[in-house]
Design brief:
Length: 352
C-alpha cells in the first residue's frame, strides 16, 4: 500500500538533509539507483569497467558496491537499513547494515578519484557515516553533532571528497555509535594506488574482512546492543564458523589480507604454516624498515592490519583469532567449571 508517509520517504522524494556539496533537488532526484545484495556468499571481485583500472579485492562473504561515473566523479549510493543476515546456514540474524547486508559493501576507488557517496537513511533514528582513516574536508568526516547534523530517517546526505592517499580504510556510523555498530553497521574502503607504489606490492590474491562481535541469545535473532564484554558470537564479516568461506589461494601465490576491527576488544589474528609481514595499517602502507615476520598480529579496536605472505606450503591452514573464547560461538559464560568434581556418586543414577 502506498501511503503518504511511504511516498514521502520514497526515492522519488529524497532531498538532501544538508550537504556541503550543495547538490540541488534536481540532481538529487537523479541519484544512482541503490544496488542491493541478498546473498551472504563471497562474490567474485568487481573488475572495474569504468574509471581508472586497478586490481580488485575479494570481500570475504561479501561484495563490492558498483558505482557510476558522472562527469568524472565516481558516484556510490549507500542505504542504511535493517537487514536479515544469514550468519551461518539455518541462523538468520536481524541486523542493521547497508544495501541489504551486514557488513556493508566494500567501496573500491583509485588514489586521486573524486568520490561522491549518497547515504540514504532508512533506519528509524539519526545516522551519519564516518570515513575512518581518510584525509578529507572536515565537513565530510561524518560525525553527528560535530561536523554535520544527523541524517534524519528517510533523508539522504551527500558526501564528496577526493581519495587522497592509497590504503585500506573503514566506514562506520558516527550517530548512536554503540547501538548502530552493535547492530552490524560498518564496511571496508580500499583506495588502490594510481601507479606502481614503492610500498604497495602487486599480489595474486587480495582479501578483506571485518571482525565482529554480537550478543544474540539462543532463540532470538536481534543483538543485545547494551552488551560491552560478554559477547556470544564472534564473526568475520557477520558470518560465524562454520559458515565462513575459506580464503582459497594457489600454491606460491603472493597473498594480501586486510583485517579491520570495529568490535569492543582486540583480536590477535593468527595464521598457521606461514610467516607474514604487516604491510599496512589504517595510516597507510608501512615503511619497509618497520616490517618484521610474525605469525600473529594483534588488531586492536578501531585498527586495520594488512598482512602479506607467500603461500608456499600446501594444505588447509587454520587462520583464526588466538583468543580461545573467540574461536567458539553461541557460547555461554555462566557455566561453572566441573573439572575435578567427583562424578561417581551420580554414576548409574538418572538425573533428578
Ligand atoms: Cu578475537
Amino acid at each position: 500500500m502506498v501511503s503518504r508517509r511511504n511516498f514521502l520517504s520514497g526515492a522519488g522524494a529524497i532531498t538532501a538533509a544538508a550537504s556541503a556539496a550543495a547538490v540541488s533537488k534536481v540532481a538529487m532526484a537523479a541519484l544512482p539507483e541503490p544496488v542491493l545484495q541478498t546473498r551472504p556468499d563471497t562474490m567474485p571481485p568487481l573488475v572495474p569497467n569504468t574509471g581508472r583500472p586497478y586490481n580488485p579485492v575479494v570481500t570475504l562473504n561479501g561484495w563490492t558496491l558498483p558505482w557510476r561515473m558522472n562527469n568524472g566523479v565516481k558516484e556510490f549510493h549507500l542505504v542504511a537499513e535493517p537487514v536479515v543476515r544469514e550468519m551461518a546456514p539455518g541462523f538468520k540474524a536481524h541486523l542493521w547494515g547497508y544495501n541489504g547486508q551486514s557488513p556493508g559493501p566494500t567501496i573500491e576507488v583509485v588514489e586521486g578519484d573524486r568520490v561522491r557517496i549518497f547515504v540514504t537513511n532508512k533506519l528509524g533514528e539519526l545516522h551519519s557515516v564516518h570515513w575512518h582513516g581518510q584525509r578529507l574536508p572536515n565537513g565530510m568526516d561524518g560525525v553527528t553533532g560535530l561536523t554535520q547534523p544527523g541524517i534524519p530517517p528517510g533523508k539522504t546526505f551527500v558526501y564528496e571528497f577526493v581519495a587522497r592517499r592509497p590504503g585500506t580504510f573503514m566506514y562506520h556510523p558516527h550517530a548512536d555509535e554503540m547501538v548502530q555498530m552493535a547492530m552490524g553497521m560498518y564496511g571496508f574502503w580500499i583506495t588502490h594506488p594510481k601507479a606502481k607504489h614503492p610500498l604497495i606490492d602487486e599480489v595474486d590474491r587480495d582479501f578483506c574482512f571485518l571482525l565482529n562481535a554480537f550478543d544474540i541469545e539462543p532463540g532470538s535473532y536481534t543483538p543485545k546492543v547494551m552488551t560491552m564484554l560478554d559477547f556470544n558470537l564472534w564473526g568475520w564479516n557477520s558470518r560465524i564458523f562454520p559458515g565462513i568461506d575459506p580464503l582459497v589461494v594457489g600454491f606460491k601465490d603472493k597473498v594480501r589480507i586486510r583485517v579491520g576491527n570495529l568490535t569492543m576488544t582486540n583480536h590477535p589474528i593468527h595464521l598457521h604454516g606461514h610467516e607474514f609481514l604487516v604491510t599496512g595499517t589504517d595510516g597507510g602502507p608501512t615503511p619497509k624498515s618497520t616490517r618484521w615476520y610474525e605469525v600473529t598480529t594483534d588488531v586492536a579496536v578501531g585498527q586495520m592490519r594488512q598482512i602479506e605472505f607467500l603461500a608456499d606450503e600446501e594444505g588447509d591452514w587454520a587462520f583464526h583469532c588466538h583468543k580461545s573464547h573467540h574461536t567458539m560461538n553461541a557460547m555461554g559464560h555462566g557455566v561453572p567449571t566441573m573439572i575435578g568434581v567427583d562424578h561417581s556418586r551420580w554414576r548409574g543414577r538418572s538425573p533428578t
